[in-house]
Design brief:
mainly alpha; two-stranded antiparallel sheet; 2 strands
C-alpha cells in the first residue's frame, strides 16, 4: 500500500509542477502580448520631457555649494 501511495503522490507532484509551468507560460505570453499591443496602439508610451531655456528654477540648490578638494567632499551651507 505504501509504494502505491508514494507513486500516486509523486505523479501528483509532477502533474502540479507541469501545471504550474504551463500556467506561467500562458500568463507570460498574455502579458507580453498585452504590453506589445498597448505600445503599438500608443497607450503605453513614456512621457516626453520638455527642456527649459532658463535652466533649473529650483532656488533651494543655490543655498549651498559642494566641491571636492582632493581630501573629501565639502558641503558649504
Amino acid at each position: 500500500m505504501r509504494p502505491i501511495l508514494a507513486v500516486v503522490t509523486g505523479l501528483g507532484l509532477v502533474f502540479a509542477a507541469f501545471a504550474g509551468l504551463a500556467l506561467a507560460l500562458v500568463l507570460g505570453t498574455l502579458a507580453a502580448g498585452a504590453i506589445t499591443i498597448a505600445r503599438l496602439t500608443g497607450r503605453f508610451q513614456p512621457a516626453t520631457a520638455k527642456a527649459s531655456a532658463g535652466g533649473s528654477q529650483d532656488k533651494s540648490k543655490a543655498d549651498y555649494r559642494i566641491w571636492n578638494d582632493g581630501r573629501g567632499t565639502i558641503i558649504d551651507m
